[in-house]
Protein 1
Amino acid sequence: ATRGVELDADDADGDTGDTYTGSREKRREDVALLTGRAEYTDDHEPPGTVSLAFVRSEHGHADLKEIDTSTAEAMDGVIGVYTWNDLEASPSPGRLPLSGLEGDIPAHPVLATDRVRYHGQPIAAVVAEDRYRARDGVAAVDVEYEPLEAVVDPQDAATDPNAPQLFAEAPDNVATSAELGDADATDRAFDAADRTVEIDLTNNRLIPSALEPRAAIAEFDPDEGFTVTMTSQSPHGHRRKLAHTLGVREGEIRVISPHVGGGFGHKGHHHPGEAMAAWCARDLDRPVKWTATRSENYLEGAHGRDHRTTAALAVDHDGSIRGLRAETYANVGGYGLGVGASMPARYGRLLASQYAIDAIRCETHTVFTNTAPIHSYRGAGRPEAIYVTERLVDVAADELGIDPVELRQRNLIPSGAFPYETPVGATYDSGDYEPAMERALEAIGYDDRRDRSGTTWDSSGEDVENGAIDDGRLRGVGIANYVESTGGGFESGLVRVLPDGDVEVYAGTHSHGQGHETTYAQLVADALSLPIERIHVSEGDTEAIPTGTGTFGSRSTIVGGNAVVTSAEKVLSKVRRIAAAELEVDPERVVYDGGAFTVSGTDGSEAATASARGDEVSFAAVAEAAYGRGLPDDLEPGLEATTFYELDGTAYTFGTHACIVAVDPATGDVELERYLAVDDCGERVNPTIVEGQVHGGVAQGIAQARYEQVAYDDDGTLLTDAMDSYGVPRAADLPQIETDATVTPSPLNELGVKGIGEAGTIAAPPAVVNAVCDALDVAHIDMPLTEERVWRAVSEERGDVN
Ligand code: MCN
């Protein structure tokens, strides 16, 4: 139920009607998902399957003195108990590769070696006939620890000389330090500007809460190798990483990823669970299943965000932004899993947001702490960056006495300036920021709301003094602009026309809720001018699909979409040549329309003959010809093409989100009275799916701003290890989300598309926090804006609390 989906009926929001692309085609995958027919990993149970469970560290930081597995080994139904010694004695390296970190820092061992570095780190693995006995076995393993002092805050870990050191190879716990932008130019910009505005902020640590936890079922055959059925956003990526950990060739592993019940980034990285299941399957010669519990997923299914940032903006009195500086400590957790180390590039490069800033300087330190490894959570670096800039702009507006919207408008990169290179090395391919902002301001009634900020007016917006009910709540309005970098890496797309004219599409991406089955079918149906019912889309099996990259970073539509369309075009050109042979004319004379080929013009002799015969060949007839009968001599049989598509650059999605809040000063309760998202992801393949993506992202962005916070105690014990302690919002906690769009096609790809999968998580946190700070007239409150924090901010502002 969405209020105001169609804010403007005559704009590009509507269904274009004449093509599948751009239309609001219903999601084809939903029937299976909603009727329970869709199969998830845990639904698979090959005969003889046994169950794997882990003994996990009870400490955030400890030396392992002794692991006594004897009781567990003797238990009825337990068929294997393993520790690092077993892995070490096997031919497998037993570590998760691709830490992405420089130097000699040891990669994450699948089972702890002699020390544990985070609460929940796997120490031993128990395999039993069923999952109950496996858990009983886990409970019977006796681990003797010698606890060590822990550190959980990344800034403390890097700057406190007394902080415990996680790795001798990483002095001050710093995994990597990186600098972006010109330091001297930034110093000059700060010196020249009229004033400097500063902020210290925390980007709160989050856990992706996909409905389906991580799971794997591994089978081993000495001749065929491994088949690992698992929850994966990147089946080929997992195959490669599993091969490293197991010490086998990639070709010896087949990864199958069936339906995946959400990922939000955490099913992209390599993990002890799947690797250990595969190792045990080989050792025991039995299919081994591992399905994480919710708490296990929370303990170590990989977390996201967790930055400490000091940032400053150099501004002139007229609101011109001259420079930006940021120094950030980004938490990596107990071991590097990849994204933590690439954080400087993902994060620092987005700090310009939508503004023409003379100079930017960003220093990022990725830091080990005694917490679960940080990998990616929807946005991974982009939400953290945009939050810094969009908060700073509001603080600057407040200090300068300029309206925050005016300050933004004054500094927008002008529409004629694209492609635009920022001082932190990002090249924005395209953009037209003003219209998106205007739409948001108009729809939300900005000027009127702004006049009432910090006052108590009722939700109808009526003037309190003119008789409307004053409900005593403080109103505020928040605006956030954003950019989102989308479309990295290559992707594969295979299009195969079967002899009866049906079309199979295979892509190396893997939908886990995004709706690729629908959107890829729309694209291919148009490229081949066929009814969409004839297009069948598959993802998620490394044996059936050309080597691909996967679904993350809002990349599937740009790279995967263009890959399948390019393959469809290659196929169509062959189809045309076969049709021409069938019609006995040159290929240039063949006209393709509505699934059938005819001959153009009536003047040429062949055309006249063909027309006189009333000739027309259907797509299906050509498809059949492609596999034998009537194939021109110079063509080989078959009708399929594969494309490995890579974008030359990065496509930048952008938009403006706006939010109106009502804050109860007595309780600190915040109500989001309106939330509006205006996004520009270029051409939209399916506006309904795009809006769904925005809804989901905004929900998670609001969750970060208001509810979610991973908490560790000082010893590194995870306090939020279940849904009753970790604040995932319920539907009733979220507002109606209004959506609108502008369309600025990306010049980098023929479809003109950009990604949309993470826009909501990027824009929503600053929009919400800006609105609440506006309502309370305070400079900053750290997320999540719990009732207590908001109440304290109100009370401090009013002088009630010391
Ligand atoms: N789309 C479109 N037109 C565009 C852009 C996108 O119609 N111009 C459609 C696509 O065709 C696709 C969907 O929107 O069906 C998302 O496309 P895209 O932006 O390319 O993103 P990806 O498919 O690569 O998805 C990745 C992104 C990320 S990084 C996370 S995290 C995320 C997200 O998508 N996790 C999700 N959305 C999620 N949605 C669900 N339901 N579950 C998750 O775990």
Note: Residues 210, 262-265, 378, 512-516, 519, 551-557, 681-686, 689-690, 693, 696, 753-758 surround pterin cytosine dinucleotide (CB under 6 Å).
Protein 2
Amino acid sequence: REYNVAILGATGAVGRRMIDQLAKSTIPVKSVKLLASSRSAGTVLKFRDQDLVVEETTPESFDGVDLVLSSAGGAVSKKFLPEAVKRGAVCVDNTSAFRMEPDVPLVVPEVNPDALKEHHGIIANPNCSTIQMVMALEPIRRKFGLKQIIVSTYQAASGAGQAAIEELKKEAQDYLDGKDMQADAQILPTKGDKKHYPLAFNLLPQIDVLEDSGYSHEEWKMIHETKKIMLNDMNAKDIKVTATCVRVPVPIAHGESVYFTVEDESATTQDIMAAVADFPGVVLEDDIKHQIYPQPINAAGKRETFVGRIRPDYENPGAFNMWIVADNLLKGAAWNTVENAEYLVKMNLI
Ligand code: A2P
């Protein structure tokens, strides 16, 4: 069987990569429809060697569509994906719109593929920073059990969209030219808040809006999504999770410093390294003698999650530190979305 596929948000930083990842995927594609807003209707983009014209999204855009890959913002997903489902499509959504709905599977295919079987037309792709963290921690959880996760993120500008990359570049150039870069800040830390600050030569400890709890919404997502993916319960108490999310002046690929404790205190650093190295989609880059460790400039453009600097907390048995890097636009977004769709096809769930 071949599938009619629609990409919603096709002109965005993630959408363009979805087109490319779909072209490289094992999914048998009959047709591709590229959807965005009226602003970019008429734009021509390539799928394999075909020229495709971007169309403005309407509910009727989804007539005859089997599979929707979407990354056009939460409000756009909320508006259009129920329309697509009504018309018989299965949707893999990269926004946060449906992630916490109890009947919507939240899936990283290497970690919890069976959750796909429970879908009712919409499958949610987790947040970029959550995906790479669970990729590195799931092999450790399976072998040694996890008690607690304390994570600090170093997140790339592209997580806030293509326009945020342009904003970062403009600020960097203005800084080098001795101009005032404050004036350039219109998007970061987040479009959804009142004040904007420059990211170039700076660090912003705010990703998404800040909540009354004291946490940013991104931090909240990392806590609850991790529990939903690993334990199938967003409020599970079996693993304690806390997070600090920071935007750094890097264009592509997030870094994460993760401190975690395991149930089986006999686990050695070598055991942890072996478990991580064995997991599909994860690459162990850990050779301190030769200064080998994951870096954003090397991870950008790759599908894998890179893990290194694994070391014990010598003052606390069963506790370790590690460093994780992945392309937030690929494994963190476009690739994980297309990979979910590949699994749906393989598992006969579309
Ligand atoms: P457009 O190019 O028409 O603005 P990014 O995350 O890089 O900012 O990309 C956002 C994506 O979502 C773009 O493809 C954008 O299309 C699309 N988009 C934004 N608003 C809408 C909307 N109301 N309907 C459909 N697509 C939208």
Note: Residues 103 and 204 are 34 Å apart (CA to CA).
